[in-house]
Amino acid sequence: MTRAETTTTTRHYIQHVVPGIRIAGDMEQWNATEPTQGRKIALILHGAMGHKDYLFQKKLAKQLPIDSFRFDFRANHETPGTWNIANFEDDLEDLRIVGEYLTKQLGYRIAMIVAHSRATFVSSYWICNSEWAKSVEAFVNVSGRYRMNLNRVCLVDRTNHELYGAQFKERGFYEWKTRVAGKPVIGIIRPQDVSKFGAWDNSYLWTEFPQHIDVLTIHGFRDDIVPPYDAIIYARVYSSRSPGTHTLHMIEGADHNFIGHFEEVIETVIGWWALRGSGNLKTGIWNTGVKGKL
């Protein structure tokens, strides 16, 4: 099959089990008129208070050599719902519904997952537990958090003052004011949500993450939301498996969202996928042997 020169973008609305909710997502296809049965597809997943076109996601989707699907998790942008900082069960249910739709209804094989921030630990848990994830062969862990209790939600912000303490004492909750897709959004965070967030335990990955999946971890040295050392922990977790490999790429000057570094993220993911396809992946540091900037 000759590949088209550009992808075709199609909007999909997937019916949720929760009444009144449909998951909004965009599919990129290289040959939109060809049957999808048995074809590989990548899932591209956003983090907290993000959306399907956030940061590098949309541009990556249009350059990946396989079809891809990116969507808004519940309560984010175009998918309705009630937002909560620790509603991991909702995210997992959304992944289950999307996975079933892509595989059961469209016939795709979910071969790759590219996840940013919050989506990394949600999707890795999904990989370990979902029948729709059994076809996954490659996982890209971007700005992934391992130590859930070491974060600015549970501890302090970058100015070393209590982030939520004053509002917790005064009102019983904190208002997180931010912008999503250019629109002002307020997320309500309560003390019990903070406790639940910090209680999530990623230690199961040492024994339960599939042995065959190749993993790429990308992290910025200037990440002040997830400590860069968490990338080292993930390297230790994933490098002990076989035949699956682990590749670590640390980006100098990059923050949690890789502002100003989108191209390097995209080039790394595509280059790593191509190297994987040639059978030449080895566990270690990305671009080993290549002299970088000095």
TrEMBL record:
Domain of life the protein comes from: Eukaryota
InterPro entries: AB_hydrolase_fold (IPR029058)
Gene3D superfamilies on file: alpha/beta hydrolase
The name this protein goes by in its record: Ectomycorrhiza-regulated esterase
Organism field: Sistotremastrum niveocremeum HHB9708
Phylogenetic placement of the source organism: Eukaryota, Fungi, Dikarya, Basidiomycota, Agaricomycotina
